[in-house]
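User: Please predict the structure of the protein below. I'd like the answer in structure-token form so I can feed it into my own downstream comparison script.

Assistant: Understood. Taking the following sequence of 506 residues as input:
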Amino acid sequence: MTEHLDVLIVGAGLSGIGAAHHLQSAFPERTYAILEAREEIGGTWDLFRYPGVRSDSDMATLGYRFRPWTAAEAIADGPSILRYIRDTAVDAGIDRRIRFGHRVIRASWSSADAHWTVQVSHDGATSTLTCHFLYVCSGYYHYDQGYSPDFAGAEEFGGQIVHPQQWPADLDYAGKRVVVIGSGATAVTIVPAIAQTAAHVTMLQRSPTYILSAPTEDVVATKLRALLGARRAYAITRWKNVAISTLIYQLSQRKPEMMRKFIRTQTVGQLPEGYDVDTHFKPDYGPWDQRLCLVPDGDLFGSIRAGDASVVTDRIDRFTPNGLRLESGAELAADIVVTATGLRLLALGAIELVVDGHAVALPETMSYKGMMLGGVPNFAFTIGYTNASWTLKADLVGEFVCRLLRHMDTKGYDQCTPRPDPSINRAPLLDFQAGYVLRAIEQFPKAGSRAPWRLGMNYAQDVVTLRHGRIEDGVLRFTARPGAPATQPSVADLVPDDRDPEQVRA
């Protein structure tokens, strides 16, 4: 017999573990499972193993709302974040609900049966599950490989070429000349990490990126923990950091010249006197048109001051046997070249969606509140913020899904579908100019020109709409099969829509 579950979660990374925690806290009796294509918990934080891998958001916001981050480091390294995710899963018993090596291939919705039939690949065989609600938490990175341009002459290079997403565990860069191609978050993380032991590291960039230095330890958070305890201090620190990041983003959008000057002044103060800041650290786009890079305690600038690292702004002509020739005619000698040239995106884990026998073409759908699809019943997905921590949005999506399921139980509904509005103008789902987004955005659902069809990028506004807004907003269409009995709500289900079950239990 085909196994049936109330909820099926796809992905056991940061989003999936958080979704499971929200679900089982709100509905202890509900059946669910997590299908994870890889063999480990952690998603991105297990996949990336390059030196120095760390968060580019503070941990008060990258951490879960329900589980305070208590370590002193506000900007944490990858292994610490991975341990935090795994501890969250183990402590809540979520790890026992994960089925590793299970890749979802296809999901087909039947309105007649009010459930999804999900085809899964595992150990070379295909199996089938059914579920009432499908919740995709697979993120949007393509895990098989990152993005690397076709470089002329790469086959002639006598050294080693490495992409950060496939970092070899045995790569020895001690005493080696290393060129890191790129200027984004991955590059500015790798350069100072390997500069400690490499002979020299050169960050080769086509154009500069905005880089801000942030303290590794949040002194305010540390003092608040001592005064108020971990949970209260975490809540205050979370909102403090949300306010700061929102202010920086809004100023970047509304007063870009002021923010350019602020970032440049900070950068000049951390580099050697007379350094050519305008060539290497003055982007030709506005602040936050692409994501700002954070460097903890200015470690990248420290490596440059020490002479262990340097920055070259130029374009690659071709690889040579000994390194790289640039369009300017300059030559860069290298033993190892790291292509930190970006990521590839993958929409909804490449799952084929079918509704009542009709294939769903994702680029033709419109995203409801950035987490459901118009015309697709009982389905949700998680995409985090591009201008703030991913988890801030992931937590809100998890809370909204629980509110939605509770509402359906209480009213006796078995289907919920965002009703598309053909009069709304369509726009890219992510209004973001980063290369990895622009290369793949046409594969994703569209956003609309007005709410609730926009992907919100303001946490405070989303708290109001997702945590406290009306469920029946005139856009969500609810239906029940004729004669279907209403589900009897549990004690947890009776928590009013604008209450947090975690707080009620506390």
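That's the full token string. Residues 154-339 form a domain with the FAD/NAD(P)-binding domain fold (CATH 3.50.50.60).
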